Structures are given as C-alpha cells and as structure tokens.
Amino acid sequence: MKLLTANMCTIFMFFVILVSLGCKMLFIPYPFHGLEYEDAFIFSDAARFVLYDYNWHVEPFQTKSCIQGSIAHCNQFGTFGGHYMVFPLIVSLVNKIMGFSVKNIFYVNFISSMLVLIFFINILKKIEIGKIGMMVTVMLFVTTPFLNIFNTSGLSETMSSLFVIVTLYLFFKSSYDGFDYRKMSFWFTVAFMIISFLTKRENLIILSLPVLSLFLERKRLSEANRTINLIILFTVSTGIAVVYNIIAHINMMEAAESVDIGTSTFNLTNFALLFPKYLTSFLSIKYFGVTGIFFLVASAYVLVFCKKYEFRLSIMITLMYLVMYSSHYRSYYQVHSGSINMFETLRYTTNYFPVACLSIGAFDFDKINVKSSSLSRRISQFAALVIFVILMVILNFKLRSELNHVEVESRVYPAIESLRLTSENDWILSDITSVFHIYASDNRKFANCYSRKINYVLKQIKINHPNIYLLKRNPSAIDVKRYPEYFKYVLTLNYTKVSDISPDYVLLKLVY
User: Fold this and answer.
1) Residues of the chain by 3-state class (helix, strand, coil), percent to 5
2) Cα–Cα distance measured from residue 10 to residue 6, given in angstroms and rounded to the nearest whole number
3) Chain segment 154-163, per-residue pLDDT in tens
4) Fewest C-beta atoms under 10 Å: which of 52, 181, 362, 400?
C-alpha cells in the first residue's frame, strides 16, 4: 500500500484546510453560541466574570455567574455544576489580551478545531493508511455539518475534543515507544489525560486507554516492560483522577444534580431513551452529511473484521462515550418530559466524534480502481469531488443559518432588545442572565428571576427605588414545577407591559 508522499500531504493538507476554513468561518456572519441555556452562554459569561471580582474560594473548579448585580459589582453569584473552569480560563486570557468581545470564544474554538484537524490527520499518518483512504476519511470529517457549527460555538466540547484527540495521539506515540516511562511521550500522555478530565468530567473515560491497550494487545503481554509501563501509566493517571475527584467534589455534584432532577443522574431509563436517539442521529443527512453513515458502517467493520490495534482502540473509546452519554440524563426537561430531540445529541457527540471518525480510515479505499490514466476518468473523478464539496458546503450553510436564526430569536434578540428599551441604572429580572452578561456593559444590573431567594433579592433591590423590569418567558408546566418561588411570588406582583419582545418573551415593568 502506497503511503502519502510529502508533496501530496502538503497539497492535500492545504486543500483540506481551505474546505474546513470555508465551512467553519461562517461563524463570522452567522454566530452560534450553542442554543442551549445556560450551557451555551455560561462559559463566555464566566470568562468575562473572572476578570472582575470572581470568587475563587467556593468551588474553584466549577463555573460561576453573577445572579444578582453587575459583572463589575456582583452582590451574589451562583455555581453551575458540571461546567469546569479550564475552558473559561483560556477564553479569559484572550479577553484580557484583546479586550472582551462576544466573538472571542468563537475564535478560541475555531483555533481549537483546526488543531483537532491537524492531530486527526497526524494520527491517520501514524496508522499508515493509503492515500485515497486518507483523502476520503479527512474529507468526510471536515465536511460534517453539525461538527463545523459546534466547533465554532460557545460550548466547551470543541476544546475538550482537542485535548482528547491529543491524548490519543500521544498514547499511540507512547505505544510505539513501548510505553517507556523514560520517554517524554509517556508523561505528555499523562499530562493530557489530566487536562482532558479537568476540562470535562466525562473524559475520565480516557483513563481506560491503558486497560484497553492491554486487552487489545494480548499478544504483546509477554513484553514485561511494556506491561509494567502500562500499569504505571494507569496507576499514575488514575491516582491523580481520584485526588481530583475528591478536591473537585464530583461525587457531591452528581448527588446535588440527582436531588435537582428528582432521580439518579445515571440510569437504564435514560439509556433506553437516549441510546437509540444517538444512533439514529448518525443517519441524519442534515446534521452529519454522509459522515455518520460511513461511521456506522466503519464501526461494524472494525469490530468484526479489522485487527488493526489503533482502529479497534478508537472504536472502543467511542462506544464507551456513547454508552456513558446515553446513560446520563441529558437535561431536566428530558427527565420530566420523557422525550428528547435529535439536535440535543449533537453537543456531546462533538466531544468524541473526531476519535470516532478515525474508524473510517479502516476501509481499504485504495483497492478501488482509480489507476486509469485517461483524461476523461480524471476529470469525472475531480468533478465528483467538487460536486460533493459544494453540496456539503451548502448543507453547512443552510444548517448554520437555520440555527443562528432560531438562537437569535429565542435567546439573543430578547436580551439585546431589552437592553435597548431600558437604561443603564435599571434592573432586569430574567431567566437568561448569562446572555445579558455577554451583550451588556459590565455595569448593567441583572437578577436571576429563578433564584430560590428571589423574594429576598427583590426586597433588597427595592431599597434604592430603581426601575425594575421583568423579561418574562412563556412558561411550561415543567417550569412551574421546577421554579415554585418564581411563580408564587414574582408573577403575583403588579406590572405594566413595555413590549412584546418575541413570541416567547414579553418585557414588563414592576409597579411598586
């Protein structure tokens, strides 16, 4: 099997980067935070808040947001379990150097996604697949619509996926070095394992790499030093993970989430609902193009026929992520409504999909007869590639513009319009304070209307007799159950309507 030459690698890398840039840079005219609240906005919120009077004394590993006051002068903050500070801290450094901008977080994720692509290609080169297999695998990867959109969002999964794929790259490199603890690749693997689970707790899964390697390379167990080094790698990284679990209170956080949702965070009910949804999402042309279909077929092929260690390890890690995400509750509303839509699977898929796509390279595409030197054959092959790329770019554009429109209407515009209709000294009560924090000046004052102490908060605000506004969202039956204080107290006060902001929101002014 011929390997890619240096010149072909350079030319192909240049072409792939152009396609990837074209699909991803649509975030400039069509920004997309991630649509979910609060997850899509909390990281940018925390990255801005950390430059001011941020409280590092309470739960320093978890993100915080000001839930009463302004970012510059916060009276009360709230901690958001499950969201860690590695990503916001990196974004905050960019904010400090360049000055805060709503788009800074998009640029950070954009750069992270391009680094993911570089490591993705380098792993395939290390596995030494054929040049046609390389072209097909990478082209499918860079044209996946949902991935290009979430890769330039405000969510942490893109940077997390970077740390995961770098860890895998270093693990393979250390494998070729015999997992020799005297080599730098061994300790860099440990370091990126740690960074990965510091970024997202579910990345503790990659601690299983040494165990899976022992299982998949049983023929090499006779190499005593290799086995001992793998055990050292597993022991060191797992030991650090246990210490981190204790310091960061991960178990306590899971317990707190269980109380909030009224059931355990991991259970078979979640799996029965979510796993089929994750699997069927790969068949969606709208979200995956044809990449998801290739991935499903490649997964079956690798598990049944392929003996190559790197592909089998990648699929095993992918399946572990799939099972873990399917077993864990997706949201409060999923638990209490018993339903989930396909879009809600995409965010978490972003975290492991680069690893998953490596399996497509297991197909021996180079056996396809492309040796004809006729000009017409070459032209038809080039035309097919151009048509495929054009169709995928159009699909990327349509999906991004659609999601941008939905997010602007449901999240961004209500905040921006409310700011326009109120003045600098006014207070705004809202359920989307994190959105306000990234679009308002740092002295604008907000309060989370769903706060359990909203009654007390309003009494404190009224002391100075400011104008107080409520950005009221049309509630669901689940909201009524989840936020009783809001419905028992806040909505019983007297208001005058200022404006119907959107189909979901109305701006009211408190009369007192």
Assistant:
1) 65, 10, 25
2) 6
3) 999 999 999 9
4) 52
